[in-house]
Design goal:
single chain; alpha+beta; HIT family, subunit A; five-stranded antiparallel beta sheet; 5 strands; globular; binds guanosine-5'-monophosphate
Length: about 130
């Protein structure tokens, strides 16, 4: 999938990306939370004791596109879902990290907007190298 024209433009959306397929129920996931605007599920390859992905239900690849073009209800619903999941899973006392990869330099693998939630141990420095 080619993400051009880049993260600041509106990349084309690939309806066959793995998160689109999860949203359609074609691929199973371990759901943590779901409502009209967002789905949260455990990452298949966890990088921390707790590693959850939160995705909006709309067809967005990039944060800039989502921020510019999603409805206020979609934006509020997605942001609230991230906070709700952190609370639901009890991460607020010990802490957690939110991360969202966007485009080639970030190594975004799945071209559907998602926020990673990492928790369950001290998470080390902000960037690997
Ligand atoms: P990215 O690199 O795009 O920020 O992160 C994509 C994440 O999606 C990775 O952490 C990867 O392990 C996860 N992932 C990829 N395919 C699947 C899948 O089929 N199911 C689940 N639950 N996670 C997936």
């Amino acid at each position: 999938m080619n993400l051009k024209p880049g993260v600041s433009g509106k990349p084309p959306y690939d309806d066959q990306n793995v998160f689109a397929r999860i949203l359609r129920g074609e691929i199973p996931c371990r759901t943590v939370f779901e409502d009209a605007f967002a789905l949260a599920f455990h990452d298949i390859n966890p990088q921390a004791p707790h590693h959850v992905l939160v995705i909006p239900k709309g067809r967005y690849v990039a944060f800039a596109d989502f921020a510019a073009n999603a409805s206020e209800a979609e934006i509020a619903g997605f942001i609230r879902a991230v906070g709700h999941v952190a609370r639901l899973l009890g991460f607020e006392d010990s802490g957690y990290r939110l991360l969202a990869n966007m485009g080639p330099d970030s190594h975004q693998e799945v071209p559907h907007l998602h926020v990673h939630i990492f928790a369950g141990r001290p998470l080390g420095p902000m960037l690997a190298g």
